[in-house]
Specification:
two-stranded parallel ribbon
């Protein structure tokens, strides 16, 4: 969460001349409601069910860049679809940087009930190993701009295809 997946993804799609999708935006469009509303009305489990459906559909598309929500790796079927249907990039950042990026955010349901640092630590312990399990490449997103990071990722992907 908050590492810059959507922003870097948009730039990466432009670099590679591919279509860009953000699974959270696709879920919102499909539901006709914001993620925070879905969490309020259906809980995290309802949201995760919608997320599985969206990621299954999106990973069947070819020639796209997909930014998933931070918790997408929690479901085994999402991990399987991501690994078998594409190349997975894991963006990392320090916990302090993530806390700073989200200080004024009111749109992240998981950060509404508690200390942000504690929540990010818990999420990292829970999700970090899953991301490492599925990722083909890992990049630190903290010390460069999203545009430069996307350019570096694009170069690596293109050279990896050669």
């Amino acid at each position: 969460m908050a590492v810059g997946k959507s922003t870097v993804g948009r730039y990466l799609a432009k670099e590679l001349m591919l279509d860009f999708y953000d699974s959270d935006r696709v879920i919102e469009e499909s539901a006709g409601a914001a993620i925070s509303w879905i969490f309020d009305k259906e809980g995290e489990s309802g949201f995760r069910k919608r997320e599985v459906e969206a990621i299954d559909s999106l990973t069947n598309k070819r020639g796209i860049v997909l930014a998933t929500g931070g918790g997408a790796v929690l479901r085994e079927e999402n991990r399987r679809h991501l690994v078998t249907r594409g190349t997975v990039i894991y963006l990392v950042s320090s916990l302090q940087h993530l806390v700073e990026r989200t200080q004024r955010s009111s749109t992240r349901p998981l950060l509404q009930d508690g200390n942000a640092m504690d929540i990010f630590e818990k999420l990292q312990l829970e999700r970090g190993p899953l991301y490492k399990e599925v990722s083909d490449f890992e990049y630190n997103a903290e010390h460069t701009t999203p545009r430069v990071l996307a350019r570096n990722i694009a170069r690596a992907l293109v050279s990896n295809e050669s």
